Amino acid sequence: MPPLDIACISILLLLSVVALSPLLSRRERLLIPTAFSLAALASFAAVLAGFLTIQQGLNSAATIPLGLPGLPFNIRLDPLAGFFLIVIGLLAGYVSIYSIGYLRAYPGRRPVTPLVLFYLLFLAGMLMVVLADDAYFFLLSWELMAAASYFLVMYEDEKAENRRAAYIYLLVAHVGAIAILLSFGLMAGLGSGFDRFDGYTFDAMRTARLAPGWAAAAFFLAFFGFSAKAGVIPLHVWLPEAHPVAPSNVSALMSGVMLKTSIYGMVRVAFDLLRDFPWWWGGIVLAFGLLSAVLGVLYALMQHDLKRLLAYHSVENIGIILMGLGLAMIFTSFHFPALAALALVAALYHTLNHALFKGLLFMGAGAVIHATRERNMEEMGGLIHKLPWTAALFLVGCVSISGLPPFNGFVSEWLTFQAFLLSPALPHPLLRLLVPLGAALLALTGALAAACFVKAFGVTFLGTWRGHRKASQIHEVGISMRLGMTLAAVSCLGLGVLPTYVIGWMDIIPERLFGGQIAASAGRFGWMWLTPYSYERASYSGPVVFGGILAVVAITYLLLHVRGTAIRRAPLWDCGFERITPRMQYTATAFAMPLRRVFGFLFAIREQVEIVSPQNHPVMADRFNYRLRIRDRFWNWLYTPLADGAFIVARLVGKLQQGRIQVYLLYSFVTLIVLLVFLG
Amino acid sequence: MSNSLVVQLNLLLAALILLTSFALLVQRRMFAILHIFAWQGFFLGLSTAIIGYATGVHHLYLSSLLTLGMKVLLLPYILYKLIHKLRIHREIESMINTPTTMMIGIALVIFCYHLTAPIRELSTLMTRSTLALALATVMLGLLMMVTRRHAVSQIMGFLAMENGLFFAATSATYGMPMVVELGVALDLLIAAFIFGIFFFHINTTFDSLDVDQMAKLKEGD
User: Fold this and answer.
1) CA distance B170 to B174
2) What is the chain A residue with the closest CA to B147?
3) Which of A658, A661, A673 best tests the B interface by mutation, with the highest count of B CBs <10 A?
4) Looking at the 3D structure of chain B, how many domains does it have?
């Protein structure tokens, strides 16, 4: 069966489950496993379709006679689309398996059917976005995805926080969608005339030749629109609001794959539709990537809500992906196809990796929240004893996202580094000077991310339990949740250990887009060694590192356990205190304090210490209340003025409404006279 | 009747219609407004009949009869009853004082002449010179709606505007097709009934027919 058919069947399967699932709305305990198994099946079918497309280098297109008369939907499956089918399908499959267990707690508490419906629609929308080959179908799918995810964020709608988050999300999504619409409109209209409709296909846009100024306008409109969805700083504000309040399986999908559809959109517009661009486009993309990465990780460090922390890390990782993308654009504009291929492969590899490890982390966070009913890390602790599986799997996610070998995050970040370090080849003095500085920022990002996950893992899983519930009430999560997370963790390891295979396999994407290849140089020494550009410069061997780590761990274990004295349980040394309480542990806030001092100027921090003393005397203090409030400065710098401005304009426009008939008549009268004067 | 006599008569009637428009604009007493409106309808009907006679477009006779029946007898009668029932005698203060309103009206007439100048050059109809006055009647009707605060006088403004439109149609093309004219006449009649119902409702709700009271319906800040 051709891959395009498999992809279409996968979407049809999802949509038919959407149509049929209301029939089971009375029997939700049956609905959840049925619907999510089918969703997992459909997702893996999409993965298969994508895999076959890339494997065979296919480029198949079809026209679906739906839509408006004379405006049929066009779909196409090329290697780029195939790659994103894999990104979406792989994580969606894992998350669907995970959801079977995760949602088991819901029936009886609240209706699950809407969640199932919108989840499936959301998946179908994402797959359709990737398959679309015309602006009309693309935007339709895009909006389907946005609307479905809005309802998913809104799911627990009795909380004001959720409604607010969903509203902000919808607002940003719509502003972005308008920009994308305008961008497609420019490309279609300037390509084949504003009075005709046949410019709406991507094929027509590919052949259109735009004047440089208009091309830049089209690209930056699209960049703005996709950035709004991707959460690039300063358009990131919806992410830390929406991800924590959505159900965890949904946040895993939103953060893991929905953001990636906008990366797909950027690659499609830049490398496929416009193709010919000056270097400064890439420079701007790179600059926003660096900004998002550094600020994203710094904001993440300040969070103590587990999911909010992960949401800010999505901002950071989107930044890293944009760095690769920006570098690829710079290299392409100076005609270095091999270097551009390296940067693009790094970006796409990181896209896939981020989908997997961020999905894993959100699933892990969901498991923790599921078990503890608590979102604040400061109220957790010691969970490694209660949730050993979740802890181990979450640790895999932490190591991956921190960019440590032998997991996948290291490979893609390392490739991005290589791309940065090869930039002195550029024939532009300014770029030669500035771009390597980006590598320094990337290194800073990696280090800060590692610090952040030391904090996240340490405070959540190590130490002793700090929460209000009894620790004995906490149990390990069910088998399907563990299965979903394990699959994601194994994928993270696989992609980290065998990068050469993956790169050789995805080499066709840059080749199709701009004729650059790296597989020949990257895989020159076989599957053991990854040498992205040339072996003299840099090489990495996933298998050797993995084997070395395994060997060290095994030897240490053996050496310790042979003597049988490895584990000795004894009472905690209490430093002479009479009683140690869990409150005396190192907290997340305390852990992040040094970095908060160093980078304090980036945040809006309000710190208050209140002394409660019965005698009203500071020395006789009874209790100290410490309050810390950290806000995103972008709220005050960018969004508050915008919102205030919108209100001022609305109030000015509102003055038109006088409530007096004569005034309304006067408007018509004046309009009539003015029109007569100018047109008569 | 010779053509030049027709043109002269028509111009005279047009001038009278314009005069009544100005009179409507400044008149305060309700019954006087009704009388002036009836006279305007009468001049309009007469002018239509004369044009119908001179050009041989015979359906204009029917329009003329309709105008006389509707705008001279029926509508004034309905409104007369209404005013009696609601006990309205004087208009409330208008928004702008009388001299200013007159000045704006004069400016509008000049503007209309300026606007229709190119059409006067092109047209070959004997009624071409009245087009400016017809347009001015429309404008003055609209001006009346803008300046008055009383619901009934606003309706009168609306009806005067309709008169102007009708007059413009006769001046520009010797009248609209019969079907359209019948339709318009029917609309007007129904509008008068609806206005009547609305007046009662406004009156009972706000205890007044001053449309400024309706500003209370405005959404607050």
Assistant:
1) 4
2) A662
3) A661
4) 1
